[in-house]
Amino acid sequence: MKKSLLFSALLLGSLSFSTITYSQNDRFAFAITDLESTGSGWNALRKLDLKNGEFTTVLLNGSDASLPAYDVTSRKVWKAIPDLKFGNYMQAPFSTGVAAMAYDKKNNRLYFTPMFIDQLRYVDLKTMKVFYVTDQPFTKLGSMHNDEGKVITRMVINPDGTGYAVSNDANTFIRFTTGKKIEITQLGSLVDDPSNGGVSIHNRCSSWGGDMIADNEGKLYILSARNSVYKIDVETKAATLLGYIKGLPQDFTTNGAVVTTEGKVLVSSAINGNAYFLVDPKDWSATQYESKAGIFRSSDLANSNYLQTKPKNLTQSEIVTRKLPDNIMAAGKIQVYPNPANDQFTLQFGKIPAGNYNIELTNVTGQIVMQRPVNVQSEDQVETISIKSSMARGVYLVKVSASNKESVFSQKLVVQ
Q1: Which CATH code, of 3.20.20.140, 2.60.40.3080, 3.40.50.2300, 3.30.1330.10, is assigned to 316-415?
Q2: Cβ atoms 156, 102 nearer than 8 A
Q3: Three-class SS string for 335-350?
Q4: For the segment 95-141, what is each residue's pLDDT rounded down to a tens digit?
Q5: Hey, CA dihedral for 389, 165, 265, 298, is it positive or negative?
């Protein structure tokens, strides 16, 4: 009982979104729960169907110390050195409880770190094997047993595949890679934006705990346990207070957050076991999420959907195209898939006039990185575009223009 209460205590520690298109893929969220619906051990992994609100049975019992763990580098079975306080319990994947988890869709992994253990770990979702990064510490802070501020409670992977994590006190900001070789970089402390008016990202009462999500441009958002919302600029490390989530019950602490296919933010609580809520990022107002099957209290949620924000540096023709209610894009005449994409993507042309068109792929600075003419002759004609291996991962803009150079379609594409 004391351990469960400790975990719960640790977790306590108005931006205008212009919706363009929600190219979200994940209709699910991974959730850290207890083995029981009313528990608070944060030692079980489940999957939540966002469409019907149903949870799966336990996918991984993270409290099972008999589960083999593998070293990331050697791929061999790893054995933990018994801890003075927790003994062999350190060997268990979720051991001291988990409050920070992020889904790596490209590699089909769930990255996480247990509270009080300075180690990055991940679950290979193909095999359900658990791997530990043993050759480098995650925070470099050493023992966390008596310092709640050091505990990592926020984690996310942004559209370019880079992972980020933040401690309770926001004095530890971490970046990590998710490819074959995992590299962990300490970025220092987050800093308060002057516009915050004295409210600090470091304040225990207002800003500890919670979860972190990202937008399609790589900006991060911390939703704290006390329901304050900060936007994080990765380059400057500035934390800007956007406001507070409105409409939540008084005893609701935001502990998990994911973006839904409709562009809302689903939030869970480790304290309130009655409901989850959907938060509209336009004004951060909350409405209750309907789940006929009931919910599990959850310390963290994760999927690979991102908030979609207004793209920068649009040309005048693109702006006009977006405003027209009867243009090709609004009518859904051209589709781009898959999105996110890896090695290639496909454009499917619907009922558009036959003729010559031009396909362009531009990066965030407006530079054309790919250009191809296409002659559309039939309905549902498809064009497959290969993605060069030299292209950086990130957000690009797919544009289609007519022979008279008039823009007829544009959509963001995430390259992973």
Answers
A1: 2.60.40.3080
A2: yes
A3: EEECCCECCEEEEEEC
A4: 889 999 999 999 999 999 999 889 999 999 999 999 999 999 999 99
A5: positive
